[in-house]
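Folding problem:
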Amino acid sequence: MGLHYHETEPGRQNARPERCYRMKVAIQGEPGSFSHEAAGKMTPGAEIVPCALSAEVFALLASGGVDAAVIPIENSLAGSVLEHFDLLLEHDVRVTAEMPLRIRHNLIGVPGVQLEEIERVLSHPVALAQCRRFFARHAGMKAVAFYDTAGSVKQVMEARDRRSAAIASGAAAQQYGAAVLEAEIEDNPENYTRFFLVRRTAEAAADKAASRMSVAFSLENRPGSLGSALNELSAMGTNLTKIESRPVQGKPWEYVFYVDCQIGSSEEGARALDALRRHCGMVKELGRYRETAGSLEQAGGSRSS
């Protein structure tokens, strides 16, 4: 997935040397992270641009510094990434695709280290929480929260710390020349993260085969307003597959609702938005895209991922 343009050399009308521009895609996290893996699968051949913070990802996309972003939106065990809902609402962007990724956690350390040498294990708090049984079996290992799964591997390898290990993907071990000390240590193998591909609204091409729509809306502060809005969608036969609420900053007890719904056509999506506008103070379409979350057998990846 690349963007190409041709340029003719001065004085040579028939000469058309090709210059190829690689699509740039921002992620939150280090190379070797699960977001990096997802971005590689959703935008093959693109240049991946790692960012320290999610806000930086969206700022870079909004400013034109990258062409797209790949962000995790929810995990089948840990739930939604609420910050990313807020950032989708805040910026002029659209979701154009989704993809589920099978998450496999591995204990990773300096090559040659033995399991019994490890005293502390670094990783993102969500990853640590998904490996509680491993820590119960290894009471001598202390879980230490870190900003990123792949970043924890990078830290261990840069320090050459034989008493520390990290929890991350097999790709992270390969990225930093580390060793997998124990594979697939997550508590539950049914561990998937759903990722969004996000573009600037002006550059988000409409997909006629879109079967899912994500929407944000706020409600009037009166009894029954949420029920009335949802009843409108129900009367149309629109199937809601997800609903989340987030507090409105600076307005106590007011909320923004985020919903995913299945749509049979672009026209059905437009009717659903019109139905919501009759009851809501604010309605923003976050994106229309093809539904793939049901195809989890396609999300497995390699056993080392």
Notes: The CA atoms of residues 119 and 139 lie 9 Å apart. Confidence is low (pLDDT under 50) at residues 1-18, 301-305. The first strand starts at residue 2 and ends at 6. The chain has three domains: 14-101+192-202, 106-182, 212-289.
